Amino acid sequence: DSEKRSFDKGKLTRGTRGTNFVASGNEKGVGDSRLSSDSACPECDKAALKVTRLEDRYAKLESQNKDLERENRKLLAQLDRYARSVGALKRELEESKSHLVSSKRREIVAMRKLDSLEAAHEEKKKEDERTRIKDMEDREAVKLAKIQPLVDSLYDNMVDEVMEKLVSQGHMVETEHDTDEVAQGSLHRVREGIWKEAENLSPEQIQSVPYDDISPRPQHFFSDPPDNSERPFVPRCTEKPHGVAPFDQQLYRQQPWISPYQAEIQQLKYIEAQLSRPSVLHPFENMDEKENWTLVDTVEGLQNMIIRLSAPSVTELAVDLENNSFRSYQGFLCLMQLSTREEDFIVDVIKLREHIPHLARFFADPRLVKVLHGADNDILWLQRDFGIYVVNLFDTGQAARVLKYESYSLAYLLERFVNIKADKSHQTSDWRKRPISEAMLRYARQDTHYLLSIYDRLRNELLDNSVSHYEMFPTDSAQLLVYVLNRSAQICLRTYSKDALNQQYVVEMIRRDGWRMGIGIDSGSDPLCFRMAVCLCIWRDTIARIRDESAEYVLSNSALLAISKHRPTSTEELSEVFNWMASAGISATVSPLLSEIKPSLFWAVACFLEEFDS
């Protein structure tokens, strides 16, 4: 009845958002049938309820979607503002970077100009010094020429006074003829005195003079004895492993000042791994805690070492050398230290001298980085003794200079990176002695054991400084590293030549050590002593060449200058010179060789005195 009343009113509502049925007049019967049908379907009610709920949920999701869209628009606006600010900052950074690059480019150009100016200035100083010395010597010659008549006059007057006294005492009859005879006799006796113990020993006699010497002389047993003559050095290289340019041995011997590997060194292309940071920065391994080292003193041991160095994993090789120069005119190598990432080798190059050239292929291999510290002399020693040339060098000493460390020594690098104090007690040891002591082996091993790890850290610092301070080109971040490699390559281009007795060295030694001893020898203050010292330097150099000894062993600088000052011509006078040195607190060691060749020394002094007297 209630439904009918509602229908009679002309309206029926189904659901919240459903369809409204309106009935009136003739449609009333139809409405009654639909209403009775709907009210009799509970599933339809449930479906209507679900639709209602879904529509509510849709409305809520649509509202949330609008909120998210609003938030998204806000974020896009913020992102746009951020992008504009980043672009502005990027432009400012590029401008700052451009200014920095320009300033650094100007700085590097200025540094190069400064280096050139310094080199030119140094050369000019040397030239001025040579000119000054020559002018000084010319002035001394003029002075001596001026005072020579006065000296002759004084000598004649002295002779005359002596003759007058002799005549007045009745010893002689004064005649012009007798006076001349006495003068000549006195001069003859004086000259006889300086020649009494002098003897001009031939090179054969000097070479055969025996003397007590307990020191080892391994160079006497070399199959290739050293050539100490004044002839130019003959290069030893007979083949060219890893060569790019052809090897003309005849041309190479005619032009020994040009490295046979000049083309390979100048055209070397460094691989990417060498110009980038190490993939792994290995920690330092305590040398005393690892016994992974080998003393190589046999041919078999050398062959085993060559096999290990040929492994593909060996891409870097630390190298150091121990040279002897005290009891040899040119010097010779005694030890070679090699270290890979895994192990150390100490090679007895005295015992294996004839076989060491087999290592040339490792030193010339452009794919193998050779790491040395202060390689200036090592490069030359390898050429001198074995004909070995180095390609692809990293000199840690050059890296220390470029990074402007407070010290460039290996000891400083060991303390800076490894935090250990380097043992320098064997820095001047006699590396010829065999067997080699355990302490000397440890010292030698320390020089290369840590060097590759130091090399890694130096590369990192060079790369860091290239980016932050020394960047020259915006696309290249390895400027300092390449600069060190280029400086190292310049060292590799150097070639060995014999050291000649240099006038500048002689003059500097006489002045330096003379003033240190308190003698004050100078061509201006004491020209006679100065020229005597020069003559003795030449004599000492000749003896050293003949006996294959160092000049300092034949006659020390201090003894040479003292002899120049006092000019002894007898054993007694020479003993007085050494006594004077001892009383003045100056080292006065006399070598066994000098004791046996004293007649030759007296001959050099007597020749100088007679030449000066004449």
* Unreliable stretches covering 5 or more consecutive residues: 1-38, 169-190, 469-475
Instruction: Please identify the structural class as seen in this structure.
Output: alpha/beta
N-to-C terminal Cα separation, in Å? 167 Å
Most strands sheet: 6 strands, mixed
The fraction of residues in strands falls at 5-15%
Described by the principal axes of the CA atoms, the overall outline is elongated
How many beta-strand runs?
Answer: 8
Helix content: 55-70%
Strand order in the sheet with the most strands: 3-6-5-4-7-8
Number of helical elements: 22
Q: Over the alpha carbons, how many angstroms does the gyration radius reach?
A: 47 Å
Order of helices and strands, N to C? HEEHHHHHHEHEEEHEHEHHHHHHHHHHHH
On the 0 to 100 scale, the average pLDDT is: 82
Structure overview:
The chain is of the alpha/beta class and 614 residues long. The protein has helices at 2-8, 28-39, 42-168, 176-194, 203-208, 249-254, 262-266, 299-309, 360-364, 376-386, 396-402, 410-418, 438-449, 451-468, 479-492, 503-516, 527-547, 551-554, 557-566, 571-583, 592-596, 598-613, and strands spanning 12-13, 20-21, 293-296, 316-324, 332-339, 344-348, 369-372, 393-395. The strands form two sheets. The chain has a six-stranded mixed β-sheet, sandwiched between helices. It has a two-stranded antiparallel ribbon with strand order 1-2. Helix 10 links the parallel strand 7 (369-372) and strand 8 (393-395). The N and C termini lie far apart (167 Å). The model is unreliable at 1-38, 169-190 and 469-475 (pLDDT under 50).
